[in-house]
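User: Sequence recovery, please. Input:
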């Protein structure tokens, strides 16, 4: 029997949707992914450095996490968890942070959710009224979208390679008086750079100073969200620091955000946590509870066991870090050699996360018959002429054609990298040098 389709594609229109839904910007990376799929379908060799994810073939999760999840499911943990997280995981997070970061948080400050995303969204929702100002550097990950979704007034601070892609305290200072939220992420997506200890201390001091002033005036606080989902991934002697260890007085205004997603290649398992003042936690838990953004129960129980197993974690992370590092180093060495040979590229040495920042200075040139005027021209030239898929910093809120791109290494093999470098050399060798 033929069944008529109920919703033929011709009917797709968003005219009847809310203005919020009509205005939301989908993922730029997903748009690029569709182009890559189309090229791959035609048989092109592509080194796909676009997705901020891990290919399980190269980066599997810890066996203990897999086994723990299986065992918890087999034991019947298939029902709703407490919407703010199972107590076992909330307690394990406090032990993990005390052991690994020297931070003593009470269990009442830990909120568990389905990855870091809901906690970021929940922070914007729980801390800001529509029209409140959210200050964040660009490029950075998704702040523009969370500000949009919550009606916050975005105050993006453009940063550059000159400051390692982090804002300085001096740059932030004039914006804090009118702000209700400051968000930072380190190690930083998209740049793979890490904030400097002294700069973070100065920024944390500013937040404390501003809050003392507001307390005297009876005004609402300035909140500080510090997203550290990549904190276990730092390289080459670079050290991760948290604002609360540097300036403990900033803790009453700070939300720390973290997850298993990047720490143990478990992006699809959806377990994250935030540490925050208990009063914030209570309301954020209510908001996220209504959204249903909790983490699956079996994964939470397995994550709790993993956080309590320092040896297992260390063994896993040593291997994982070495694999991330060798990929970043191979790309860094390849681009550095091209720069030394006078090709128009610039690369920043990897400090953390799974990303490398590379600048392709091809503006105004005609390469393989294509004239390059924008980042998107560079992106499609690299993709179509060299089989390299990368994401421009514009996808992270930085306006303008700067030539800077994010290269993400979690979904490629060393062989993929070895294969793309000669293709790039070939292409960039045809461009005018710097
Ligand atoms: C800086 C940063 N924070 C948070 C997230 C989201 O993490 P999760 O997958 O746990 O939601 C990402 C994902 O790419 C990220 O780069």
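Assistant: Recovered sequence (434 residues):
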């Amino acid at each position: 029997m033929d069944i008529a389709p109920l919703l033929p594609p011709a009917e797709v229109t968003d005219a009847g949707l809310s203005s919020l839904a009509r205005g939301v910007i989908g993922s730029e990376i997903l748009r690029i992914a569709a182009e890559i799929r189309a090229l791959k379908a035609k048989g092109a060799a592509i080194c796909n450095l676009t997705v901020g994810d891990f290919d399980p073939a190269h980066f599997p999760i810890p066996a203990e996490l897999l086994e723990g999840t299986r065992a918890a499911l087999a034991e019947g943990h298939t029902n709703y968890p407490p919407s703010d997280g199972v107590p076992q995981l909330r307690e394990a997070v406090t032990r993990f942070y005390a052991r690994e970061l020297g931070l003593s948080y009470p269990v009442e400050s830990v909120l568990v959710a389905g990855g870091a995303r809901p906690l970021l969204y929940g922070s914007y929702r729980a801390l800001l009224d529509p029209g409140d100002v959210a200050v964040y550097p660009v490029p950075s990950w998704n702040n523009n979208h969370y500000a949009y979704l919550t009606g916050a007034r975005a105050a993006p601070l453009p940063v550059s390679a000159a400051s390692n892609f982090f804002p300085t305290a001096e740059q932030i200072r004039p914006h804090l008086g009118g702000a209700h939220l400051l968000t930072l992420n380190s190690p930083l997506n998209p740049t793979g750079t890490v904030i400097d200890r002294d700069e973070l201390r100065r920024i944390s001091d500013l937040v404390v100073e501003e809050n003392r002033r507001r307390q005297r005036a009876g005004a609402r606080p300035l909140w500080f969200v510090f997203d550290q989902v990549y904190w276990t991934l730092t390289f080459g002697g670079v050290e991760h620091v948290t604002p609360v260890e540097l300036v403990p007085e900033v803790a009453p205004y700070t939300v720390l955000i973290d997850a298993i997603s990047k720490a143990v290649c478990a992006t699809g398992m959806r377990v994250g946590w935030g540490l925050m003042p208990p009063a914030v936690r209570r309301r954020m838990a209510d908001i996220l509870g209504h959204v249903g953004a909790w983490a699956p129960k079996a994964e939470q129980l397995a994550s709790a066991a993993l956080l309590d197993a320092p040896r297992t974690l260390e063994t896993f992370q040593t291997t994982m870090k070495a694999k991330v590092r060798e990929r970043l180093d191979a790309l860094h060495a390849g681009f550095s050699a091209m720069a030394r040979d006078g090709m128009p590229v610039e690369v920043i040495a990897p400090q953390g996360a799974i990303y490398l920042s590379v600048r392709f200075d091809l503006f105004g040139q005609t390469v393989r018959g294509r004239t390059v005027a924008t980042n998107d021209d560079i992106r499609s030239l690299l993709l179509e002429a060299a089989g390299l898929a990368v994401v421009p910093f514009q996808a992270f809120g930085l306006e303008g054609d700067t030539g800077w791109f994010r290269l993400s290494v979690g979904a490629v093999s060393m062989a993929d990298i070895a294969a793309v470098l000669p293709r790039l050399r070939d292409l960039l060798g045809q461009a005018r040098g710097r």
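The chain is about 45% helix and 15% strand.
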